[in-house]
Design goal:
Blueprint: E1 2-7, H1 10-20, E2 27-32, H2 35-39, E3 43-45, H3 51-61, E4 65-68, H4 71-75, H5 78-84, E5 89-90, H6 98-101, H7 103-112, E6 120-123, H8 126-136, E7 140-144, E8 153-156, H9 159-171, E9 182-186, E10 191-200, E11 204-206, E12 211-212, E13 215-217, E14 221-224, E15 229-232, H10 239-259, E16 265-274, E17 280-286, H11 294-300, H12 305-314, E18 328-335, E19 359-363, E20 366-369, E21 372-375, E22 379-387, H13 390-401, H14 417-421
Parallel strand pairs: 1-2, 1-4, 2-3, 4-5
Antiparallel strand pairs: 6-9, 7-8, 7-9, 10-11, 10-16, 12-15, 13-14, 15-18, 16-17, 18-22, 19-22, 20-21
Helix pairs in contact: 1-11, 8-9
This protein binds adenosine monophosphate and glycine.
Length: 422
């Protein structure tokens, strides 16, 4: 059978890599893909991004099902469009994707359905936003309402920083329409975890847990990024915590959407903050898998992902169980010079070793130009190492990282540090 993966990042490389391992796969197409999916003999890049044209391609090639990586096509209604044309696709409809595409929608939803989250208020008026900050004090968190590629959140430690964020987003229009409304919310302290499930409209199938590293620099310093590395599993999510998150957050979210008249299908990613007393709260929802969380998660999945996807689009996720590699996977992102503000493109990449059972290098912002692999985006590669402990997985990952070279390469040296403490 043939499958299409939509997207071009490390997440999509990892999904396509895993799908292609299935014996039943004839071809995995990736639209538009990257330099890594171009080099993989089992994958074929398709240079189409227009959603109607993608649907035409799926029809003409006889592709059995489509898996969507990023949020933009989901918020743009790719699932609505494909379904209207009778094409099987795994992802949320445009309506369901509002859980991610509007922070105001997500917050109002959580409040209405009693799902634990930070206290908040939504503003489009600058003066009212400033007054709310003065009344509540710092630290406080300011978020652009719409999609901002992970960069629309300011965790303000001082009042001054908070007021500046309001001015940037509301007065100076830094995020365009995405920041025409902002959410201001209570600062939550604790440890984060990424909790991702698959939902077929009725059944919920949790994936392995993971933990992202959002800050650019070691010790969680520097600016927020799309994610500088992730590892799986996340030991903070104990079996008891897992049960609690399902009960208090995931199940009520799927049920709440249904109550509001929206059937949720696709990946649901709850970004959790777990406080010192062990209470989980939802920082955000994503309607897709995380990037880079997907890279370590897929590296650990032993079950045939094609079979999982078939159950997902046929509403039978209750009939499959996922089997995981017991090892820990640590994924280290190698980012371009200047990332996240102004990534420099064009540097030639050398030294990526061949995949082994212990280490895989997934591509993101790479392209093949005249037979050379070059940097084409902010997050360039994600090296995943597997090992019997966080420490061993880290060691394996960094051994590979140290072989890879490109001008201005940035990476953190401490991915998994929270896991080492548990
Ligand atoms: P989000 O895109 O909403 O997940 O926010 C990006 C990052 O900002 C999160 O991963 C957290 O590290 C941080 N963050 C967001 N909301 C809060 C909050 N209410 N309190 C503390 N940190 C937050
Ligand atoms: N790694 C965070 C995200 O995908 O949103």
């Amino acid at each position: 059978m043939k499958i299409l993966v939509v997207g071009s990042g490390g997440r999509e490389h990892a999904l396509a890599w895993k799908l292609a391992q299935s014996e039943r796969i004839q071809m995995v197409y990736v639209a538009p893909g990257n330099g890594g999916t171009a080099r993989d003999q089992r994958l074929v890049n398709v240079n189409i991004t227009d959603l109607h044209e993608l649907a035409n391609f799926v029809e003409s090639e006889g592709i059995s099902l489509t898996v969507v990586g990023p949020e933009t096509p989901l918020a743009g209604g790719i699932v609505n469009l494909f379904r209207a044309r009778g094409l099987k696709i795994f992802g949320p409809t445009r309506e369901a994707a509002q859980l991610e595409s509007s922070k105001d929608f997500a917050k109002a939803f959580m409040q209405r359905h009693g799902i634990p989250t930070a206290k908040y208020q939504t503003f489009s008026d600058v003066a009212q936003a400033h007054a709310y900050i003065d009344a509540n004090g710092a630290p406080i968190v300011i978020k652009a309402d719409g999609l901002a590629a992970g960069k629309g959140v300011v965790v303000a430690l001082s009042l001054e920083e908070a007021h500046r964020a309001v001015d940037d987003m509301l007065a100076d229009n830094r995020f365009g329409d995405a920041g025409a409304r902002i959410v201001i919310e209570e600062f939550l302290a604790g440890e984060e975890a990424s909790f991702i499930v698959m939902c077929d409209g009725k059944n919920i199938l949790p994936l392995a847990t993971s933990q992202d590293h959002k800050r650019l620099k070691d010790n969680d310093e520097g600016p927020n990024t799309g994610g500088m590395g992730a590892y799986s599993p996340a030991p903070i999510v104990t079996p008891a915590m897992h049960a609690r998150v399902m009960r208090e957050i995931i199940n009520p979210t799927i049920a709440g959407m249904a109550k509001d008249g929206i059937v949720f299908t696709g990946f649901l990613y709850a970004g959790l903050m777990i406080d010192a007393a062990g209470n989980p709260r939802t920082l955000e929802f994503n309607c897709r898998m995380g990037d880079p969380e997907t890279q370590p998660i897929m590296s650990r999945l032993k079950t045939d992902l094609v079979a999982v996807m078939e159950h997902a689009v046929n509403g039978t996720l209750d009939q499959i169980e996922l089997e995981w590699d017991r090892r820990t996977a640590v994924g280290v992102v190698l980012a371009a010079d200047g990332y996240p503000d102004a990534p420099l493109k064009g540097a030639v990449i050398d030294g990526i070793p061949a995949e082994t059972p212990e280490a895989i290098t997934f591509h993101a912002g790479t392209a093949e130009v005249d037979g050379q692999l070059v940097v084409s985006g902010g997050r360039v590669l994600c090296v995943v190492g597997l090992g019997d402990s966080v420490k061993l997985a880290q060691k394996t990952a960094y051994e590979v990282v140290d072989q890879i070279r490109f001008a201005g390469m940035q990476c953190r040296r401490d991915i998994g540090w929270r896991g080492l403490k548990h």
